[in-house]
Every structure is written in C-alpha cells, then in structure tokens.
Amino acid sequence: MGNFFTRRLLKMRKRLTQTQFIALGFMTIILIGTFLLMLPVSSRSGEAGSFINCLFTATSASCVTGLVVYDTWTHWTLFGQLVILIMIQIGGLGFVSIGVFLSIILRRKIGLKERGLMQESVNTLQIGGVVKLARKIIIGTAIFEGTGALILAIRFIPEVGVARGIFYGIFHSVSAFCNGGFDLMGWQGEYSSLVNYYDDWTVNLVVMALIVIGGLGFIVWDDLSRHRLHVRHYMLHTKIVLLTTAVLLFGGAWLFYLFERQNLLVGMSPSGQILTSLFNSVTPRTAGFNTVDTAALTDASKLFTVILMFIGGSPGSTAGGVKTTTIVVLYLYLWSTIQRTYGVNAFGRRLEEDALKHACSIFMINLTLALGASIFIMATQKLAMSDVLFEAFSAIGTVGMTTGITRELNSISRLLIAFLMYCGRVGSLSFALSFTQHKHVAPVQQPMERITIG
Length: 454
Hints:
The chain has about 450 residues and is mostly helical. The protein is about 65% helix and about 0% strand. It is built from 19 helices and 2 strands. The protein has a two-stranded antiparallel ribbon with strand order 1-2. Strand 1 (about 345) and strand 2 form a beta hairpin. The chain starts with a helix and ends in a 21-residue tail after the last helix.
C-alpha cells in the first residue's frame, strides 16, 4: 500500500507544471505552519489557536506580508516566533532556492526539472547559470541578513539584554530583508511596530537598506556582482530596476513630506522628518513596518501609499506587488503610443512585444482581485472604504501595512485577505496560469474583426 501511494505521488509530481508545483509548495508550507501555530506550545496562553487565525498568520508569514490578527510578541511564545521566522525566511527566498542550495551542499545532481523550477521561482531570464545563482542568493542573503542582525543586535542589547537583543537583531533583520514586516516590539505597546524608533538613525537606515536590497531582485544582484560599477554592461532589466527604485524612493519621500508636513511631521526634529519621509517611501515596497501611525495619515498619503503598495518591488525579489518593471513597461508603451513611434525603446534597447501582454495581465489581475475583495468586504462589514481598500492592496502587494482593521475582519474576510496574500506571493498571473497551462491552443482560430477602442 505504501509503495502504491509513493508511486502515485511521484506520478502526480511529474504531471505538475513548474507553476503548479511552486503554488502547491507554498500552500504546503502555509498548512504546516498553520498546524504548528495551532499547537498550545505556540501561544503564551497555552491554548490551541483557532484554525482561521493561525492560517491567516501562517499565510502572512510565508507570503512575507506582515498583516497580523495577534501581536507577534504578546501572543506567540518563543517557539511560535521561531515558526514565524522560519516561514518568513522560506517565503522570502523561496523554497525552491533553498532546496537547490541544499542539493549543492549534499552534492546531489540537479536535473533539468529542478533548474526549470529555479528559473520560474526567481524569474530569471535564462535557465543557464541558475545553480550558481542559487549559491549567490543564499550566500548574499547570509551576508546581508547577518550584517543587519549584528548592527541591530548591538542597538537592541542595551535595551533588552544580550540574549533577547541578539534574537531581536536576527528576527528584524530577516523580516526586513525578506520584506516580511513582522516585529517583536509589542513589549513597547501592542502593534507598535517601529514607531518608537522613528528618529533612530541606526534602526531606520539598517531596516531601509535591508528592505531595498531584498526588493531589488536576485537577477539584479547577479548582474551587479558580475559587472560591478560598469553601468554600460548592465542588463536592460537591471537599469530599469535601479532607476525606477531610485525615483520611487526619493520621489516618494519628497511627496510624503509634502503630504504630512502639516500633520504627522509636526513637532518632529529635521532629522526625524527626513527619516520618517524616507522610511514611509521605502516600507510600502513591500515591507510593512511603520514608524508612524498609519491610520493617522492624510488621505493623500494613504492614496499614495496604496499606489506604492500596488507597485511593490522588482521581479525575482523578496518583495511583492505588480513589480517596478510592469509599471515601467506600461508607461513606455503609453509614451510610444502618444509619440506614434514604432516599437518601445529604453536605454538603447527595444522591448519584446510579449512584455506589454504580460504587464497588462499582471496589472489587471492584481487590480481586479484587490477591488473585488474590497467590494465584498465592504458589502459584508461596515468598514470605511479607504481602510478596506488600504487593507486589500496591502494584502495583494504582500506589504503588511494596515490602518488597524485587520482584527475587525470576520472569518470570511480574513480568508479572503489571506487568499490575496497568497496570490501576491505566488504571483496572481502564475496562480491563474496554474489552472490553464495544460490546455492546448485550438488549431483553427476564429475570424478577426476590429472594434473601436477609446
């Protein structure tokens, strides 16, 4: 009987497409995390947690989002916090990358199927060199997270002691680099995140640096490591990502300052205003930490934050969102249409035609999911529209920022938000394709007919 089920599982794995395997892999990690968090040893009360709330937390951790129904420090024990930390790390790097690296250590042969999974997991442009890329990802992650953990531990040890300070440094470094948004600052006040460190240069700069580095994408890492400062040799992808990231980071900080200079920034020192503006430009892309009360933001800041959350980080990174390249492709095609030029060019290169199709699909699927979920939640619960939209876009972008309504959601709404987080991490387009990749294109196409657009 055991051999029968083993053969069935192996046969099923062979039938799965790469996208389906990744989607099911994340689902498996979420379910394992859910049952571990449900154990009495995971909660400080010593009682078994509810399935819905533990599923929500496990999804948020595995999908590196940061939305929570319980304060991470006050509700979960050290065991529960370690479970969350491991899920954040696996979710940020991707279980495929970790699996390939373990195969390298164990000197196991990595076949074409595993290489294809790696390519799909990190969105690399070619299958060649994915094994070396996996090694760079793990080693680079260890260096960045280790450095961040060391600096943060030195900062936290005077406040909370050696053992706790070291754990805090590790936890927040991993959470920041993986764009997780989970924190252990509940001892300063439940759900306080990094509010008490809004003017702390060490905490702000380290966390922001980790968020940005994690959100650039592993493809960019590889390109930078090979070509160093020789910008001419960078791939088009790298050039677009770096330029867009810089514009969104500094442009976003300037706009946040304009929107909040008569609101949350009042009474802050100049350095506090600078750090707060920069941090609130970085964290929506897509980390989830906050150094100010998100619910107290002006309407302009909330709308702008939603836009940043929707854009997110870059492809093949620890961040979510529709990605920077998607937005750039859409705007480049818009500019090309207005200019009536043939083809779309950037940095002396012409984009492939499928880029627009792919970008439009991702943009529309994410927008439809976020708006559809928002409408459903508003129809079933009496919550402010701005807060619901903020929550939904935070979930689909795997950001984790909230105006405080997460704990007010009913069970169905929480499941819906968890579904958005899952789609945001796996990729909404990838999730949709997992149901259709086995379908064949009909040999005969329908007659073409023009319609009026615009």
